[in-house]
Amino acid sequence: MKLRTCGAGRVVLFALLPCLFALLLLPSTVKAQGKFVVTAMTEKRIRQLPAGPLYWEIENFPTLARAQAAAGETSLAAEIWGKVWLFTLGTKGGPARGGTRIAEIGPVPRITAPEYLLRINTGQGPPGARTSVHMHPGVETFYVLTGQLGQKTPHGVNHVEAGQSMAGHGPGMAMQVFNSGPGDLNTLVMFVVDATKPFSSPAKFE
After folding, report:
1. pTM of the model
2. Of 3, 27, 99, 110, which one's alpha carbon is 20 to 30 angstroms from that of 45?
């Protein structure tokens, strides 16, 4: 009887092995299939863009009140991931606004519209996370805080490391954004788009 019980136990154990392996692999599988999360932080509408080549200037401030006080017509202030940020769309080497300069990104392709929307988003995701293929009626600019960002367009694939930026493409460009690195991705995303059109639309790679 003992031998029969032992044999039956072995049969049950072998039958359960695939399930045990699946459980062991589950965390990494879920992480690899995690979502690319995009969150809108702040936005404003403006009637006119600054003259000349456009650049996004990014600064840190000690408080949100000080960032808001320093903000100009084409500036956006927000508290993101424990820091206070001021994003200003203007010309290269624009006047200092009193914060700690983090980056100046550009030139940003110009667009023409009856009204413009400036928006700041965050993008986050584990390795392998990606957006759907989409397009915007304007320009999407990135500054990567942690991880590695990938962007696929009909022109190919670009990668941006932490501390680096990507000025973006012109309106109507099909794109897919994804985490192309081994660690979690955290990126700031700055938009200047046509405010009279849908902010984002599905697209296809031709």
Report:
1. 0.83
2. 99
